[in-house]
Amino acid sequence: DVKVTQSSRYLVKRTGEKVFLECVQDMDHENMFWYRQDPGLGLRLIYFSYDVKMKEKGDIPEGYSVSREKKERFSLILESASTNQTSMYLCASSLEAQDTIYFGEGSWLTVV
Amino acid sequence: EDQVTQSPEALRLQEGESSSLNCSYTVSGLRGLFWYRQDPGKGPEFLFTLYSAGEEKEKERLKATLTKKESFLHITAPKPEDSATYLCAVRGSSYKLIFGSGTRLLVRP
User: Fold this and answer.
1) How far is B48 from chain A, CA to nearest CA, in Å?
2) What pLDDT does residue B1 have?
3) What is the mean pLDDT of residues A28-44?
């Protein structure tokens, strides 16, 4: 079975804090993704990575960065959290670019 | 511009009352249409991938179909546990997934 694991399900952070969201997949997938999901706005792509140390900006990369040092792990970093980054964050992975994307359980981030 | 529209936004059914959810799309060079189920507070769970017009796939009470302009997710004799939000997404020539806003399904016992 496909398994994408997001280590933190619920986080509460203060404005200005640096936040790390971690994601691990165990399927040896090449591609990994970070989305955020907000009511009325749907799923929006923040960043994706098609190989170790490689990354591409998605639709809403501002205020975020990512790191992929190992194939199975993809981290999303909020350098200085702001209240408008309160959201559900979803990590996903796929074997090849044209393949099905599988999602993790999500991380609920509240910035106060 | 690639676009996905799902309808209705919300659907209430009685247990056993069959119905269909619609996903209309415009995309240059379809490279897959995907259906996901999402329960409250959880990540989307993959259901089906369809690649070409005329293709159909089934899983338990769900059946997905595809034409050149739209896809339907047919739910036969639904049960309360089928209640969820159903998301449709398409991939075009850019390989990026474009998601619809989803249909919230509620099945009453």
Assistant:
1) 9
2) 82
3) 93
